Amino acid sequence: MKKDLQIKFPQLEPALYLVSTPIGTAADFSYRGVNVLTNADILLAEDTRFLKKLLRIFDIDLNKRPVRIYNDNSDSLVRSKCLVDLKNQKSIAYCCDAGTPLISDPGYKLVKAVIDSGYEVRSIPGASSVLVALCQSGLPSDRFCFGGFPPSRRIQRQEFFRIFSQIPATLIFFESPRRLVATLEDLQEIFGEDHFVVICRELTKQYEDNKRGTIIKLISEIKRNRNLRGEFTLLVDRKKSVGPGTNQIVSDLTSELQRSSLRDAVVAVAEKYSLSKKETYKLGLKILKK
User: Fold this and answer.
1) pLDDT tens, residue by residue, 218-234
2) Per CATH, the architecture of 130-236 is what?
3) How many CA atoms, within 13 angstroms, populate the side-chain half-sphere of residue 140?
């Protein structure tokens, strides 16, 4: 006898529902996500055009329900209206353009306002480029840290990476095509040119591409591609536990300085241990002054 495979969902309670949407292929949208968008009293969207397209794909009828915009430019009045709706026992579904709301997408201020006012928030799990990239990267997944988009200016970006380099975990960032090479060059400065990274482009889409290798190798590959397009997720292997100041590195750098110039010694040791050349240079100067 065939078992009843029909999925049954409880009636939506008054709450803010954060609905994760596909990052590429529409087939990744969950049954539960469809149910929430079908039955929520009010729909919020970062971009109403994207949401209405999703509704058409899954044949979800609006039934004259309101569809409102909520994004980073939305003010407190918009959030106040949502709180009034929740007070009136309405259910609200919020979708960002793609992926999970709040993960480098709008929604934090709304969630905080809802919680602070004593109402419920429910997150509907689904696609996230952070987790998709991590799982297929080949890098350690026991610990990871998501840093969002690095700063656009070089000085701030290098300091940003310097701070993250101290975290003993796989690092994950988003980046745009026009800044990808500059970001890799800054990573090279902090982590060393032989440090291993993974670049994922257009995850779950038709032209998905994953590049794995050392920073210097991938910089060379990307520079040959003049028509760089798409959305990029960048993963950086955790920095080796050994670092400047440890006995082994001091010993190796001292030995290199005895047979080569400061510059050559710094390059050799920095590449061997995936260290910042700038920090290794400072260590070399300290050794020479002794």
Assistant:
1) 999 998 877 788 899 99
2) 2-Layer Sandwich (3.30)
3) 13
